[in-house]
């Protein structure tokens, strides 16, 4: 490492090796003096952008063919997804999920691909990602990805044998969230109404804070009146029916006594009885 340049440190805390630094500065000489103002994604964009331009120039010279679709690589630190621009194929649910991850500018490694692909089977079609992070679920010591939609937080781990482990926490069951920093990682803690404490170690120093800020507005929200109405109406309806049934039997009992005392004839009693039973 080049100690003169502060061990090649970047703005996001990453460190660039000398080989990569030489290659990047060969393209952009400003990096030598302003390395601390660049993050790893920007350095990679510089290197990848130059490589793409050189490849395209070589292709044009060798075979000037116009392609129907253009492919570009979107890099978030060490994780990349291939997106098809102007593609004639309809986007799949997995394509939509990957687009959402890219929009969140999340740091994921290539090893998280299996969990990312599994999201298409875990999330409902109506769910949209609002937070994604890679890390370890300290409760069971499994590694995977922690995601949040607008209604729940989910941890997913998929091992080499294909088995899947999930931990799900509904936003309305989460009462509080805590986050803390480490040197190169961070920790996130969820506390639920059921007394569960879920702890996660996230592999990026800012990941826990970003995750916390993304879900803070959704957790422990009281149900809206529209959400509560079906349950309250049902309970009220049940009580009303019970009261009405009791009232009918009380009236039948009174009618029976009126019949016994001769105030009501058999015909009158049967007529009133039929009316009351019709209300049940």
UniProtKB/TrEMBL annotation:
Q: Show where the SHOCT domain sits.
A: 250-277
**Native organism:** Chryseobacterium artocarpi
What InterPro entries would the database entry show? SHOCT, YokE-like_PH
Domain YokE-like PH span(s) in chain numbering: 123-216
Q: What is this protein called?
A: YokE-like PH domain-containing protein
């Amino acid at each position: 490492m080049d100690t003169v340049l502060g061990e090649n440190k970047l703005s996001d805390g990453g460190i660039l090796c000398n080989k990569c630094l030489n290659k990047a500065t060969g393209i952009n000489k400003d990096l030598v003096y302003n390395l601390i103002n660049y993050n790893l994604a920007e350095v990679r964009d510089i290197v990848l952008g130059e490589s793409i331009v050189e490849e395209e120039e070589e292709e044009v010279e060798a075979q000037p063919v116009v392609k129907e679709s253009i492919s570009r690589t979107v890099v978030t630190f060490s994780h990349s997804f291939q997106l098809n621009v102007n593609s004639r194929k309809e986007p799949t649910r997995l394509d939509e999920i990957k687009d959402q991850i890219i929009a969140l500018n999340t740091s994921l490694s290539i090893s998280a691909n299996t969990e990312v692909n599994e999201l298409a089977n875990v999330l409902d079609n109506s769910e949209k990602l609002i937070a994604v992070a890679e890390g370890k679920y300290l409760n069971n010591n499994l590694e995977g990805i922690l995601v949040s939609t607008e209604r729940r937080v989910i941890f997913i781990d998929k091992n080499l044998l294909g088995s899947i482990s999930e931990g799900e926490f509904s936003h309305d069951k989460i009462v509080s969230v805590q986050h803390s920093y480490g040197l190169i990682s961070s920790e996130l803690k969820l506390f639920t109404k059921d007394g569960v404490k879920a702890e996660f170690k996230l592999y990026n120093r800012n990941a826990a804070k970003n995750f916390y800020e993304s879900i803070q507005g959704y957790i422990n929200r009281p149900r809206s009146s529209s959400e509560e109405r079906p349950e309250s109406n049902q309970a009220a309806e049940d009580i009303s029916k019970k009261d009405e049934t009791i009232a009918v039997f009380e009236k039948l009992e009174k009618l029976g006594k009126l019949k016994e005392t001769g105030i009501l004839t058999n015909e009158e009693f049967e007529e009133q009885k039929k009316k009351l039973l019709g209300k049940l």
